[in-house]
Amino acid sequence: MSDDRHQFGDDPMLDDHAAEWGVEPVLALLGDAGEPPPVALRAGVIGRARAVRRPLAEPIDPPALYAARVRDLRRLLDSLTVRDWARRAHPYEWTVHGLVAHLLVIERYTATQFGIETPDVDGVDGLDDTHLELGATTIAHELERDPEVTAAAWAVAARRVVDLIESDTYRPDRPARLHGWPFSQSSALVARAFELWTHADDIRRATGRELMPPTAGELRTMSSFSVQGLPFLVQLRHPRAQVVPVRIVLTGSGGGTYDIGGEGEPVARLAVDVIDYCRVVARRIEPAELDAERAGDHHVLDALLDAASLFAV
Amino acid sequence: MTVRSVARRARRPVGDLAPRRELRCCTVSDGIAHWERTLVARLVAGDDSALATIYDQYAALVYGIGVRLVGRDHAADVTQEVFAGLWDHPERFDATKGSLRTYLAMVCRRRCIDHLRRGGRREANERRGHDAPLSVAPNVDEAAMAMIDGERLRDALFVLPSHQREAIELAYFGGLTFREVAVHTGTAEGTAKSRIRLGLQRLAHELRTADEVERA
Predict the structure, then answer these.
(1) Phi-psi region for residue A31, left (φ > 0), alpha (ψ -120 to 50) or beta?
(2) Of the partner residues A25, A29, A267, the one whose CB lies closest to the CB of residue B14
(3) Pair A217, A63: CB distance under 8 Å
(4) pTM over 0.80
């Protein structure tokens, strides 16, 4: 703050830029009170805003999203050094090499669920197919090999999924059960893209690299998929719960405003950065640690955030 | 606690997060700046309830400026334009350059000046229609300032020490920047700024006193 500012004291009417913007005299002369506008004007202003929705980033299609996340991870793996592969990939016990071996298993598992012929994945029970228990034998085998060989095997498995979803045989509505969840192929791709982004960030964090946010369109696809599923997830977590109207505002590039839980005035509102929200969904941020603006009933919001990470595996 | 039991207790709509009066009596603090940044981020995300909160906070300011600059008949239109502009282009507000309050006042002033210009052109066209000679384009800043209860303002200006009055006249009527005022008056920029600011404080005080006397 400049000395000039101090000379002006604590007058709340003025800030440093009032003069620059040519409004200093107006603000000073107007005083604190202003003048209440006609009551009907508020409805006109808000009504127009509801009628003229702000343009938001266009979500991209799930196949393009998945393919983009595969490309991102592939570029990252290509850049790793020998030392990088040996680093611990929090929050797991695995090294980066072990995490990529896990991804190889999950990519093969996904391919199987999409009807693509692929090497068997051990640990598949056809029920829950517990995520972190799949492919223990494969992971152990991969850890005996060169990390670049594991990365190449992962890339081949991911490529086979990409080839399918970019072909005419891809059917977005066809069921693709993943880890017990009754996904369609389309929603399974979004969930998988989410996981690829999360693990890419795990690797970047482990190797001291800067985190790379997805594009606005990618974020919009992932976050809207997650937010719109929240009422369903809350009911899974609390089977007797009555879902109530809530407004979720995801700020930042790729964000948006979502009214979920039915019609009516929201009983609660959460405003949070879209990437932070996604990290809660991915269990990389605890809901209690989330830097968010909460309004209305906090218990409703707590229940939503608690349920938000149910998909995370 | 289940969501159902929570919902039973929570059947009231979500309200503003910041009490209005508390904000108005605060200095432009980090807290307010953060609150404003959050609101504008919500606007960018398309949350119309953020616009409602901003409207409730600043509509009286915007409308008040409108009334003083373009008169009561047009102040509502100007106010609507200001908030519509904020909704359509919230990214134009840069929190690093000042407060939302000042930004809205600036936009309102511009809208008022546009309005006065349009009015001036209309008047000129009407005169042309009657074969009247073309008049010089009005000094809209001056016209705007004149409408801030012109007579009282002029009286108040004469209460100021001459160096403060001169600095204010140059900055506002003359449209000079602080630096240009400093050059024009042969003073340091800091001195010019403080003359303007002290003069405005004094002006505001004089006008408030005049109001109180009138009311009494």
Answers:
(1) left
(2) A267
(3) no
(4) no
